[in-house]
């Protein structure tokens, strides 16, 4: 890592754009992870839906305003690829394929021994295990066109995209940097956001599985107001029963995926040992209590507030951006 990485001119901006907001964060130091600056801007409903940009022009105008307000022009930037665009696959390749030749080998196998649900993918790959005969590889893939649309959005607004990532890796990295992760555990990560839930399973610190669930979101059922810190808080003002039914469906899906991991993938020999809950959903504390009652598995949240001084507190909505900022540190 360059010794000048954390100088004021070299800090990389970390931006997360989802269906309802634009967030950014600059990292001040990595150990312990402390941000320098951060910000948030809510988006009108409908501009982005399940990661797909429906109104590029309006989104670009809002992003330009954010960049000017936050003084980010001409900065290098990392960004997250929406989970709805991403798949994770585990594949096996011959052991004699050298590490620097893995991507080329995978490109040759696309459409024959390796099948992805879209054409022209962009992907990354990592070796998770190997023996004399084979290597097990995790592929993180997305449709190139979808990734380029977000990259072009940033470039069109005088930012310089340098890296893209997926949310499970970002939040796990923060979990790891806070010394909350354990080796050889089977961790279920639930990213519970306002418009979607993303569920992933980490095995020996690698995400081997990911499942994305859109949430039906009605903007009229939520009120927004500024708190004393100048940050927006959202309050549910709709019918309580609507949330009960919605949450119950999500909890059933989490249970189904835990059973799938235990019985279908591992024939009852392994099971999820812990759950990590994170997200920007306003009722996350209630969701935490619901999950603790429903599942016997220990449940964790990001313990950032317990490890930093009060004046360096960060809104939990920005934990994902903090994990993204730790990439490469």
From TrEMBL:
<dbReference type="InterPro" id="IPR050696">
    <property type="entry name" value="FtsA/MreB"/>
</dbReference>
<dbReference type="Pfam" id="PF11104">
    <property type="entry name" value="PilM_2"/>
</dbReference>
<dbReference type="InterPro" id="IPR005883">
    <property type="entry name" value="PilM"/>
</dbReference>
<protein>
    <submittedName>
        <fullName>Pilus assembly protein PilM</fullName>
    </submittedName>
</protein>
């Amino acid at each position: 890592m360059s010794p000048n990485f954390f100088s004021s001119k070299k800090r990389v901006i970390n931006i997360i754009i989802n269906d309802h907001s634009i967030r950014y964060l600059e990292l001040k130091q990595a150990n312990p992870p402390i941000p320098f600056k951060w910000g948030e801007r809510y988006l009108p409903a409908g501009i982005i839906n399940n990661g797909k940009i429906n109104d590029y022009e309006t989104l670009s105008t809002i992003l330009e305003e954010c960049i000017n307000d936050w003084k980010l022009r001409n900065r290098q930037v990392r960004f997250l690829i929406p989970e709805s665009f991403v798949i994770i696959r585990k594949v096996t390749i011959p052991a004699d394929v050298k590490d620097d030749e893995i991507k080329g080998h995978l490109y040759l196998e696309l459409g024959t021994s390796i099948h992805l649900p879209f054409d022209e993918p962009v992907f990354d790959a990592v070796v998770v295990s190997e023996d004399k005969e084979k290597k097990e590889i995790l592929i993180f893939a997305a449709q190139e066109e979808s990734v380029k649309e977000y990259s072009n959005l940033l470039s069109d607004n005088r930012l310089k995209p340098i890296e893209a990532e997926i949310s499970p890796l970002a939040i796990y990295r923060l979990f790891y940097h806070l010394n909350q992760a354990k080796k050889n555990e089977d961790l279920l990560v639930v990213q519970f956001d306002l418009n979607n839930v993303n569920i992933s399973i980490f095995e020996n610190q690698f995400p081997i599985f990911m499942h994305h669930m859109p949430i039906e979101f009605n903007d009229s059922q939520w009120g927004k107001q500024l708190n004393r810190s100048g940050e927006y808080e959202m309050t549910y003002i709709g019918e309580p029963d609507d949330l009960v039914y919605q949450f119950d469906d999500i909890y059933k899906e989490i249970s189904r995926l835990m059973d799938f991991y235990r019985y279908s993938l591992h024939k009852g020999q392994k099971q999820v040992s812990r759950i990590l809950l994170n997200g920007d959903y306003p009722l996350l504390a209630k969701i935490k209590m619901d999950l603790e009652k429903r599942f016997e598995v220990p449940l964790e949240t990001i313990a950032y507030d317990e490890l930093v001084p009060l004046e360096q507190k960060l809104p939990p909505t920005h934990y994902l951006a903090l994990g993204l900022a730790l990439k490469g540190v």
